[in-house]
Amino acid sequence: xxxxxxxxxxxxxxxxxxxxxxxxxxxxxxxxxxxxxxxxxxxxxxxxxxxxxxxxxxxxxxxxxxxxxxxxxxxxxxxxxxxxxxxxxxxxxxxxxxxxxxxxxxxxxxxxxxxxxxxxxxxxxxxxxxxxxxxxxxxxxxxxxxxxxxxxxxxxxxxxxxxxxxxxxxxxxxxxxxxxxxxxxxxxxxxxxxxxxxxxxxxxxxxxxxxxxxxxxxxxxxxxxxxxxxxxxxxxxxxxxxxxxxxxxxxxxxxxxxxxxxxxxxxxxxxxxxxxxxxxxxxxxxxxxxxxxxxxxxxxxxxxxxxxxxx
Length: 311
What we know:
By secondary structure, the chain is of the alpha+beta class. The protein contains 13 helices and 6 strands. It folds into 2 domains: about 10-40 and about 130-295, Up-down Bundle (Multidrug efflux transporter AcrB transmembrane fold); about 50-125, Alpha-Beta Plaits, CATH 3.30.70.2040. Strand 3 (about 75-80) and strand 4 form a beta hairpin.
């Protein structure tokens, strides 16, 4: 299904040098932001105090957040936990205060608003656990990246693998750059969003690569740039529809999902925009500059195959 049909091929490859320069500028800016400012890790990674509370009535989450901000606990996170009456609060490590003291201070502040609130559990999450999460998360991203490269190399050709992995790393680094630049909280949900972005970006790239390979086998005339332009033009409707419908769902999470899903959805919406861009205007130009040709796309004929089949 196509919402629009472009009759003439759009000359994407004529602007390839410019789009790559733009991507390179964003990539360098993201790396600088990561090096200078670093990521603002949540207590999932840095350690802190986890407090579970129970209310007799459904908890008013916005009111609880407001109370904690007024009492100097603005860096903490508040979310529903199980039933509507149960709340989980996460407070980062504070110098000079133990986990028990933080828990007591939070409980005292909240009881000023509602004396019926009960503390169910207090737990300290140590930084050692956070370090393990950082290492495991980095390892997961690395293994996924290697898996993507191997998949593209086996399914297509090594030039496609290189173009695909560069575009994928480009997407992840730029998303991380946004989080570093604006010091948005980087939590486990954001790490999950990064893994989702990897899958989304690769899916988009594979669709374009499939059409490029098909065009190399079908089009007997035309330069490499024209063949790639035709492939991207033919998949443009699908790319726009996919990114639009996915973005609508993610925007719903962004505006209606509350604080817990906000940064998860924010990472996804940035990743979808950048992933769509890189699939078309980063991965394909790299494949072209690596010297892809029609001969690379043709099936390899084994010597003697024709002789063996003769009667």
